Amino acid sequence: MHSSQTIVLGAGLVGMAVAYGLARQGHAVTVLDEGDQAFRASRGNFGLLWVQSKGYRMLPYAQWTRRSAALWPEFARMLAVDSGIDVQLRQPGGFQLCLSTDELEQELARLEWLRDAQQGDYPFECLEGAQLRRRLPGVGEAVVGACYSPLDGHVNPLKLLHALHVACQQWGVKVINGCHIDAIGQHSAGFELAAGRQRWRCEQLVLAAGLGNRELGAQLGETVPLGTTRGQILVSERLQPFLHFPTSTVRQTDEGTVQLGDSAESVGLDDTTSVPVMADIARRAVQSFPCLANVRLVRAWGALRVLTPDGAPIYQALSSAPGAWVVSCHSGVTLAAAHALSLARHIAEQSPASVLAPFSLQRFDPQREFNYAH
Amino acid sequence: MPTDPLFRPLSVDAATVQICFDGQLLQVPAGVSLAAALLASGVRHSRTTPVSASARAPFCMMGVCFECLVQVDGAPNCQACLTPVRAGMQVHSQRGARHADPQGDDHER
User: Fold this and answer.
1) What is this structure's pTM?
2) Domain A229-304 listed as CATH 3.40.50.300
3) In b/e form, how buried is each residue of A206-227, taking b as 16+ CB within 10 angstroms?
C-alpha cells in the first residue's frame, strides 16, 4: 500500500499544472499516469494560448481564459526558475484569418457579443485588405480579412509539458507511469485506488485524465460528459522566421518549424490521420501564406480534443465523494497558468470558490444536445 | 576546402562527373549519391544546424537523419544521400534554416 496526501490522476498538461500548483502550496503530491496507451492530448496540441472568441455565450469562461493569459508571464517565469526550461512564451496577439466574408462575419459576431458582455472591455480589431497585409506581411490574396486580438499568444507545448514535469520533480511530486486505475474506493479518511496489484491511498483526489475522466468519474458515481473531435496537425521543415504572430491555423515555432492545423472531425476515438483532411489543412495554409507552397512537410499526426458539451472546463468538487475533484478541459495550454496558480489553490484549500461555480457539472442538462465548441 | 578524402572509392577507373560545391569544382564518381560524392571529395561539413549553427555532414546515408541537407540547383534542404550526382550540379551548403521563399536564400553569404 502506497499513500500520498494528494493523488492526481493524469500526467498531461492539466494534471501536471494542478500537481505543480498543489506542490507549491505545500502538498505532498503523487501523479498516476496511465501510460502511452492513453490518448495523449498534451502531446498532440497546437500550442496556442488563445483568448479570442473563447467563452462566446459563456462569459465566465471568457473571463477565466483571459485571467489565465494574464497569469501566463508569471507562470512562465516560475517554470523557468523551477525547471531551467524556457517554454518560449510569446504574447504578441494573434490573428484569426478568414477566407470568406461568412467566416469573418461569424467571427466578428462572436467577438462583438464578448465585447458587449464585458461592457466594451475586450480589445480586438477587424482587419481587411491593405491594412491586414501591412500588419501581417505575406498573407495571401485569398484571405478576405482577419480578427486580431492583442490577448493571444503561443508557447512550445512540448517544452511546457517537459518544464512542468521537471518543475514538479523539483517540488517533490512523484510521477508514476503505467498506472491504469481499475477501481476507486471511498473511505472515511479518503480514497483507495487499485491499479493492477498496486494499491494507493490518499486524502485528496484530482481526476485530470483527459478523456479517461469519463471512466474515472463513473467509478465515483459521477457522469462526466465528455466528447471529442479530432484535430490533425502538419509540421514543416524549419524555416527562417517569417511569421511573427500566431494564427489559429498556422504558427511558426521558436525552432523554425511551421505547424498547420485546426481541423475538427467527429470520429470517436480514432486519432489517426487522413489524407483528405491533411490536404485541406495544407491548401488552407498555402492560401493563407502563399510562400509555404514549396515548403516540405516532415510530420503529421492526429489528436483528440477533450470537449465538454459547452466547450468550457469542468471544475467540480464532488459532494458525493468529499475530497475528490473533477478537472476536465480542452485548453490545457491556455489554462495552464490558471490551473497552477488559481485552481490548485482552491483545491488545496478545499474551498468552493465563486470563480469556479460556473464550471460545475450541474450546468449540464442531460437532455441538452451536445454542441461541441471549437 | 579540405582535399583529404574521407573514403576511398572501390574502383579508381570508374567514370566521373563534375559538380560544383560552394564554388569548388569537384570530380566525383558518376552514379553515386551526392552525399557519397561529397564525403569522397573530403568535404567535412555540408550544413549548419538551424538551432545551434553547429556544423554537420552526411551521416545515415539512407534518408532518415536529415544531416546531409544541402541546396541543389537553388532548391533548399535537399537530402544529399537521396540525390544522385549529375554533371554540372550546383550544390551549396545549407546554412541554418531555409527561407519560406527560396529566393530569399543567399548562396553568397
Assistant:
1) 0.91
2) no
3) bbbbbbbbbebbebbebebbbb
